[in-house]
Design goal:
This protein is α/β, with parallel strands linked by helices. Helix content is 55%, strand content 14%. The longest helix is centred in the C-terminal third of the chain and has 22 residues.
C-alpha cells in the first residue's frame, strides 16, 4: 500500500463533499431539535460506529459545554438488534426501531457506503411513512439511498474507507453547526 496514494484518495473523497448538502443536513437537524424532535441514526459495521460517534457528540459535547441534544444510535443496543434479527430478520433491525421511536418531525441519518443496504433502505422507507426527514450518507454508487432522502451527503469514491473518512468530515461539520445553533 502506498501511503501517499491513499492520502490523496481520501482527500479527493473529502473534496467531493458538497457544502450545500452539509448545510442543508445541519439545518434539518437544527429545525427538528428546536421544534422538539430528535435525531435517529442507523448504519452497519463502520457506519454503525459512526452513528454512535455522532450521537455521542450531540448527547455529550462536540466543542462546547451545553445542554444535551437528543440523538439515538439505533445500532447501539445489542439486545434489541439481536432480538429483532432473530425474530424478524436482519433487514428489519432498524425499521422496527424507527417504527417504535420515530415521530413526525424527527430526523433519520441513514449511513450506507454502498447506498443499497436492505436494512438501511427499509428504515428509510419507514421513516418516510412516519413523516421523518431523512439525511443519507453514501458513496458515489449510492443512487438508491440518494433517491429516498431529503438530502444526501455523497462522497465521490467507491472505496469504503475513503467514503467513511469523508463522512466523518461531513458529520463533524454538521455536529459543529447543530451545536452552535442549539446552544
Amino acid at each position: 500500500m502506498e501511503v501517499k496514494k491513499s492520502i490523496d484518495k481520501s482527500i479527493r473523497a473529502i473534496k467531493s463533499l458538497r457544502e450545500e448538502d452539509i448545510l442543508e443536513a445541519a439545518d434539518i437537524v437544527v429545525s427538528s431539535i428546536k421544534n422538539g424532535g430528535k435525531l435517529l441514526l442507523c448504519g452497519n459495521g463502520g457506519s454503525a460506529a459512526d452513528c454512535q460517534h455522532i450521537s455521542g457528540e450531540l448527547v455529550g459535547k462536540f466543542r462546547y459545554q451545553r445542554m444535551a441534544l437528543p440523538a439515538i444510535s439505533l445500532s447501539a443496543d445489542t439486545s434489541i438488534l439481536t432480538a429483532l434479527a432473530n425474530d424478524f430478520g436482519a433487514d428489519e433491525i432498524f425499521r422496527r426501531q424507527v417504527e417504535a421511536l420515530g415521530e413526525k418531525g424527527d430526523v433519520l441519518f441513514a449511513l450506507s457506503t454502498s447506498g443499497t443496504s436492505p436494512n438501511i433502505i427499509s428504515a428509510v422507507d419507514e421513516a418516510r411513512k412516519k413523516g421523518l426527514k431523512v439525511v443519507g450518507f453514501t458513496g458515489s454508487k449510492g443512487s438508491k439511498l440518494k433517491s429516498l432522502c431529503d438530502v444526501c451527503i455523497m462522497a465521490e469514491s467507491e472505496d469504503t474507507p475513503y467514503i467513511q473518512e469523508a463522512h466523518a468530515v461531513a458529520y463533524h461539520l454538521i455536529c459543529g453547526i447543530v451545536e452552535g445553533a442549539c446552544m
